[in-house]
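Bench notes, bay 3.
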Amino acid sequence: MPNSITAITATPLDLNRTYYETHATEYCKRTASLDLEALYEPFLSQIPPGGCILDAGCGSGRDGVAFVSRGYGVTAVDASPAMVRAACERGLDAHLVTFQEIQFESCFDGIWACASLLHVPHVEMSEVLRRFARALKPRGVFYTSLKEGKGERIAEDGRFFSYFSLDEFVTLLTEDKLFQILRAWKSEDPDSSGGMSPWLNFIARRTDESHGILDH
């Protein structure tokens, strides 16, 4: 059974860095062939041709490379040194940065956070979303996917995960009028373990109202 987060002493960041450092090669091989074309289209349709994208939690660089091949400018960040190395080896401009450390301001037309915010503790999510909103250009677009569920726990493979309901995460995105929801939907898709999981997907736009809020 997965462990309760209250039973551990290591931080979520420590746990996940340890996992990806130990399992980098097999993780990259397992996720390299996942077909995300159905997710790329609704996101990229909101980004101007040649626009700038932040691949937030880039992993092996699979998605960032796909965006570069379509003519977009991509900056990639990940909290795992092993994943940053893997993304750089694929030619991406990748940097070791946690979401809690992001300092970009009005730099990106879009942020792609596919299956990466699910590693952020609930208590830190609102601040991370504010940092994402600040990193976007006015009316920039944000895609994220998370696993549907409740609470936080350590999976059997040792990684920390946060789970949300669709309504719960919509509330986080729209609080303080940071984002306008363009689309929110559920899906049953593969996860990095090779199994199928219930996923939540969101495409949101930075609102005009957020500009003044984020200046404070």
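Next record in the batch:
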Amino acid sequence: MRPRSFLPLALSLLLPLSAAVAAAAPRPLYVYDFGGLEKLSPEERVDLVAKTGYAGLVLSGASAGDVENLPRHLARCADPAGPQIMAVFVRYTFMDPPVDVARRETVVRQLAGRNIPLWIILDNRRPGITAAEAEAALTAAARDAAAHHVPLALYPHSRCWISSAEEALAILTKIDRPEVSIVLHLCHELRARNGARLPEVIRQVGSRVSAISISGAAAEADFTSPSIMDRTTIHSLDESAFDWAGFVALTDAAGLRVPVAFINFKIPAPVTDYLPRSLAAWRRATGL
């Protein structure tokens, strides 16, 4: 099924969709360690994504187990000619700040000197988080990352304290940390009800974007419940009614030649099934 074009007027001002993407130099696709990959050992994850044709992984550093496995992932991705780690993300939950800080510091020190970005999610698991608390947590993370020469990006995430790219830009402007970038996630912008505003969002935040993520999605996000919202905004790329390739075309047209990751959170199909199907859809859309 051909994905529904979500912004016909905006895209009519660009090249035709397939030409807009294919006209630029090819770029690789990374994938998150979700959707069944998290059930494999670090070595098995890296080997499977490499065998399937992905460029590498976005890794979670959100749990103690994730952090414990990070050295094994780094070792498996040490060959510059092989799969690489696109980024590692952590959560600042505000539930237990010393634990949040210790986990983030551990990841930063493992990434020091490797040119692997750290992405940080400002969560909202504790009621009553203030703007001052969020700004202080992000400022401390920025200082620590800079001291260890680790690129830092703010990761907007639905149902979190920062849930959209424009909110991310606002807090980064407030704390005046120009070195901190933003990750632009299609699924989280859809959840922020920005699907029809993507050209405007890209214009607002594009100069700060260092990476993007894509996923298949339903034609319209369903906000009936958090789980249904998740399911309607993350599909395999080949089973998308939403025009994710149009989103990529918009970022290309805006000059955002940044790394791209496929977010595969809780995709129910076997990982050995949907990974190759999604990569094939990516290659068709990008002309590879």
